[in-house]
Amino acid sequence: MKLSRIKQFFIVLAAFLVLGIPFKVMVLIQGFTEVRPVNGIPPIAGLICGPVGAIACGFGNLIADLFGTFNATSVLGFFGNMVAAYLPYRLWYIYTDEEPNFHKNRNILQYIFICFSAAITVAWILGFGLYYGFGQWMENIYTYILFNNLGFSIGLGMPLFIMLSSEDVHVCCVSGPKRYLLMKNQKLRFVLPIVYTAIMAVIFVGVCLFHVSPEQQPWLHILSALGALGLVMILV
Amino acid sequence: MSKTENNILLFSITLCWAASYVFIKELPASLSTYGYLTMTCGIAAVLLTAIFWKKFLHITLATLGKSAFLSLLLTLNLLFDKLGIDRLSSSTASVLAATSILIVPFLLLIMKKSPTRNNLAGAVIIMAGILITSGFQVESLLSAGALFMLLSAVSSSVYTIAVDKVSKEEDPMLLSILQMWISAIFSFILWFIEDPSTFASVEYSNEMLSSIFILAFFAKAYAYVALMYSQKYSDPISVTIIASTEPVVTLVLAVLLPTAFEESFTAASVLGAAVIMLGAMVSGTNFLSRKKGGTVNETE
Q1: Among A97, B224, B264, B281, which has the minimal tally of Cβ within 10 Å of its Cβ?
Q2: Is B17 on the interface with A (CB under 8 A)?
Q3: pLDDT value at position A27?
């Protein structure tokens, strides 16, 4: 099954709204976040639709925010959800030439790694974005976003993708990224996402297990700067 | 679809159904069981039709008939399930619903399709684990709620075996959509007989509508589509084995969402969960059949 870009955009947008709006009443932090099964959508939207899916996820989140959590910080949600879809698309094709599928156990492990990398990235964008852009540090936001993204992208996104890629439905995925402008070297392309994920994982361990905050720990700023650099290199 | 993919799909259905208890409990007590089924199946049917309307072009009388039969079983299952849950704690309801782990092999035996030795041993171990998890008390059997849950288990077992046959013959998506429509219509007729004011009598609130929508999407639309697809590539025992791990999933959810679940995290519940997982592993392997020289479904 192959769809035009416009159809892809509206299907992802509709899925985002259908899954996002009903859960607005299950608030975790008033005005900021709720239980979000909709976070299962971005990785598969990215893998199937590529950049179009990522843009649809960004706008879908923005529109869903209008039903309960819309404020200036929604701009972070817009970028966070776009990255949650676009990063898996970029990462998948670094490690394989195959069209995304879970027919092999190796691919399942790769998807889990990609989801972990995307989840800690989105948690960092929103958690640290709130701190740097709006002067608010909320450890809970970071933790909830991380587990919302990781849990639902694996628990819901993976089975959903299995159905979509089955012989009966067989949704065609867009082709891989044409180029990695800042990662032309093959070895760098292989190693950088792992290093990037490791940096983000250190931030995750610091925030979630040791409850450190960027107000007290300057090394978090250094790691954040390195992480931001790594993210740009992967995405561009 | 590989076996791992199929197991992931089946496990996700178990996850949806385990989590659905939270949202069912959120519904107002005044909402009729038939109303609940009409709304959840109806929304699921509309959603699936809107997305996969082209499937209707391939509809045949045979597909319609098979879907109607499955819907009848499904409606009975869902009705008894809701009636049971309303009268029991979620842990007791889960235990009784899980008795299908014993009913399915029994029905297969009647149909002269012998389960393997591992299947039978696994089923017995899983049932033991479920009893340990629940801290089972005989008194709980002597209630209308328990009877409803057992009837739900019987209809769900028959449904599992029927789907196994039908999903290999027909389009799984079309089967799911038709089942949702027919179940919604069956339920609406029963609701209308019970209370002619139907939708007008419901106490609407944002929370209630959210719960209905969430249940329609996950416990109905997603779960039944996933079930039809996975059963196409699986067998009834495997489906029931994975579904029987529901108490383990409920326990994990209770730890992750302590305010949403009434479960307590005790030594018995952990031991029971471990025994259930052991049973699932025994059932999923074939070391007993190999030792005795038996084969899978040898009388089939």
Answers
A1: A97
A2: no
A3: 65
Distance from CA of B9 to the nearest CA of A (A): 5
**Alpha-carbon distance B129 to B72, whole Å?**
31
- Predicted confidence (pLDDT) at residue B298 exceeds the cutoff of 60: no
Residue B92: name the closest of B25, B142, B149, B13 by CA: B149
Task: List all residues of chain B from 148 to 187 with a beta carbon under 8 Å from chain A.
Answer: 171-173
Distance from CA of B299 to the nearest CA of A (A): 30
pLDDT class for B140, splitting at 50, 70, 90?
low
- The residue of chain A nearest to residue B227, with distances taken between CA atoms, is A163
B18 CB neighbours in chain A (<8 A) are none
| B172 contact residues in A (CB cutoff 8 A) | 168
Q: What is the Cβ-side half-sphere exposure of residue A229, based on CA atoms within 13 angstroms?
A: 9
Query: Closest-CA residue in chain B for A102?
Result: B5
- Reported as a single tens digit per residue, the pLDDT across A176-197 is 887 887 777 788 888 899 999 9
Tell me: the pLDDT tens digits for B254-296?
777 666 665 566 777 778 778 888 887 887 777 776 655 444 4
Q: Does A105 touch chain B (CB under 8 A)?
A: yes
- pLDDT of B299 higher than 50: no
Which candidate from B8, B206, B214 shows the least CB-CB separation from A158? B8
> What pLDDT is stored for residue A187 in this prediction?
82
Residue A101 to residue A67: CA distance in whole angstroms: 34
How far does Cα B91 stand from its chain's mean position? 15
- The whole-angstrom distance between A77's CA and the closest CA on chain B is 22
Can you give the pLDDT at residue A226? Answer: 93
Cβ within 8 Å, pair B8-A102: yes
- The domain ranges of chain A are 5-235
